[in-house]
């Protein structure tokens, strides 16, 4: 009789961690051993099959996720030639303190002087302005990144506009804002965006037909205006200056025989509208209208000049002139 101890056929079943006979795990292990599934070669095959199944499952799940993203996720922008989603713009400093102030506030504040065809409130008291200059301001606002309809037009007397600009109460000054040598020295100015000529106006019953026929009569014009500069050498002491054309018109018949100013400003005078005044003679000089800017803001000046040049290039300047000022439109001014 062989008294050698019997070696268990499966060492793992004889280990201390093996399930005791009679348990469910023991029954399953015996069944697997009886069918030959616990042989090392077959265990290796089962492991490989398991890896393949897991890999296939992960691939199918990834494909499904990609399909959902394509159907419901971000889509390429059609207008983008690279077919990618345009990233949100990163705000960077513009280099202009005025532009930064405008964009932070969200709207423009513009000091204006009303003139027919250029800037007119319609209806009165509505704070709704139309005109050639107003349309240009809206194009500038859009370029600076603010809503063109959110522009606060602030009627300001001629002699107070530069002060408002220096105190940063307004962003721009425009509307009958003539470019003069002194204004170029005092601060930045964009443009010119329009050229016009000052003229002489006299009472309707006056015999005066030109500056030459005025004789020894005096002329009143707004101080520091292009008309004043044009008449200073010709009239000498016969030239009177006041704050604006309204004050000049009040002097007619009281030591003043004529007034001089830009044709748009003259047309706005009540006396001109009622037929009590008429314009006579040839233009006295050429007025260049510009946009007054805060002193030293070269970046803002270049931005606005670029907008003005674009309006001339694309034909917008001509269309706006003919809409608000008359047809045919003249040759646009040259913008530096």
What report would you give on this structure?
The protein has helices at 11-14, 24-34, 40-72, 97-105, 132-143, 161-166, 181-186, 226-235, 245-250, 263-268, 270-273, 298-313, 316-324; strands at residues 108-112, 120-121, 129-130, 151-155, 172-173, 189-196, 198-203, 219-222, 239-242, 258-262, 277-280, 287-292. 29% of the residues are buried. It is built from 13 helices and 12 strands. It is α/β, with parallel strands linked by helices and 336 residues long. Mean pLDDT is 79; it is low at 6-19 and 65-92. The protein is rod-shaped and about 135 Å long. The strands form 4 sheets. The protein has a 5-stranded mixed β-sheet. A 3-stranded parallel β-sheet has the order 4-1-5. A two-stranded antiparallel ribbon has the order 2-3.
The amount of helix comes to 25-40%
Number of helices: 13
State the strand order across the main sheet.
Answer: 9-8-10-7-11
Global shape? rod-shaped
Q: What is the succession of H and E elements?
A: HHHHEEEHEHEHEEEHEHEHHEEHH
Low-confidence spans: pLDDT under 50, at least 5 residues?
A: 6-19, 65-92
Kindly provide the radius of gyration, computed on alpha-carbon positions and rounded to a whole number of angstroms: 42 Å
> N- to C-terminal separation?
122 Å
**Residue share in β-strands:** 15-25%
Count of DSSP E strands? 12
Whole-number mean pLDDT: 79
**Biggest beta sheet summary:** 5 strands, mixed
Structural class: alpha/beta
